[in-house]
Amino acid sequence: MLVQDLLHYLTARFLFLDEAVKGYEHLHELFVGRSHSNKAIAVETSESPTILTVPSLPKRQLVWMITGTSTGFGRRLVKSALLRGDLVIATVRRLEKTDQSDQDDIPVGLQANLRRIELDVTEGEDALKAKVDKAAVTWGRIDVLVNNAGQGLVGLSEEGGSSLFRKAFDVNVFGLVDMTTVTLPYLRRSQGCVVNIGSRSAWKTELLGVGPYSASKAAVHALSETLATELAPFNVKVLLVAPGAFRTEGIHSRPFFQERPVPAYDDVRDITARRFASIPGTQKGDPARAMEIVVDIVRGEGSAVGKPWPSHLVLGQDAIADVRAKARKLEEAVDEWEWTGRAVSYEWS
Ligand SMILES: NC(=O)c1ccc[n+]([C@@H]2O[C@H](COP(=O)([O-])OP(=O)(O)OC[C@H]3O[C@@H](n4cnc5c(N)ncnc54)[C@H](OP(=O)(O)O)[C@@H]3O)[C@@H](O)[C@H]2O)c1
Q1: Are 65 and 141 in contact (CB under 8 A)?
Q2: From the CB of 199, is ligand 1 less than 6 Å away?
Q3: What is the C-alpha separation between 92 and 312, in angstroms, rounded?
Q4: What digits encode the pLDDT tens for the residues 204-253?
Q5: Could you give the dihedral angle defined by the CA atoms of residues 22, 335, 310 and 69, in that order, rounded to the nearest 10 degrees?
Q6: Which of 105, 117, 139, 150 has the least C-beta neighbours within 10 A?
Q7: Is the pLDDT of residue 8 over 50?
Q8: Which structural domain range is residue 233 located in?
Q9: Cβ–Cβ < 8 Å for 191, 234
Q10: What pLDDT shows up at residue 59?
């Protein structure tokens, strides 16, 4: 009996190590964004799997639809795409907010390649569909959807409650889902791509006050991965971008949630609110450089030449360190409880 138990243990240990190595490779690929050439996706059927490969976007003048372009990443991305010769439909919440500096940002000769439309991603699917359908008529197609619009809503979980989480999800998740849903008919036709701006906060979650934002971005990451699988048969690709801290104008403009104070958190709230308030201007990331890489990947140019389409793009030294730390932490957690975790099945294997 003792010998049999020992054999069971050794077999299980061997299987675990084998799977841990494969799992680590998978996690590494998942988190660090290293993927293999001409990404192959297996579609599971009852018979043998069909392997579909994801080719690069065809070389041509692309039509981009970019949300949230009044400031930050979105504003830089509009300029980058235009300078590569592409056409851009840029969404802003209020057209009157676009001022002379927005005009000056774009070389005069390229302004005809830009259409600005007014759109709030929380308007709901019907309203967004009407606006996207109308905008698509401009150049007759949409090749690239960039779900960039987002808000950095932060607050302590108990104080914010579900209403703060809902606010974050309304913009960062449901707005993104609605924009994707109404744009996909165009992207399927053009065999284009969806670029979702996630965040390293989906992985760096052990930070006071970041709960609503982190949770919403983790949802963006998960749904992007599923979407990539669902869209692969149509040759529509998904790029999930996970930036670290970048010096944009608006991401820290929303005040730390303090409207429903729970006295037990008085000290923590104060310290945390001050910490968030001290971030603007100190971020190491340059948003213009980051968006150049996104354009490289979408167009298969510059830093993306000769490289396969990455499912994940982790941007910033801070983000890369955080993702690696999370991958290690997960592996340790699995290791530590592996033996117990395996022992819960009806059948031992
Ligand atoms: N900066 C960073 O460190 C960082 C790191 C990781 C991820 N990100 C993500 O990057 C994306 C862009 O953020 P950013 O840093 O560039 O910040 P930003 O300067 O605040 O830009 C956000 C943009 O989204 C727009 N927006 C906000 N709510 C909207 C809504 N309901 N409907 C439509 N547009 C809306 C804003 O428009 P208004 O001007 O009208 O508010 C603005 O144009 C976000 O998804 C953010 O979560 C940023």
Answers
A1: no
A2: yes
A3: 26
A4: 999 999 999 999 999 999 999 999 999 999 999 999 999 999 999 988 88
A5: 160
A6: 105
A7: no
A8: 54-324
A9: yes
A10: 61
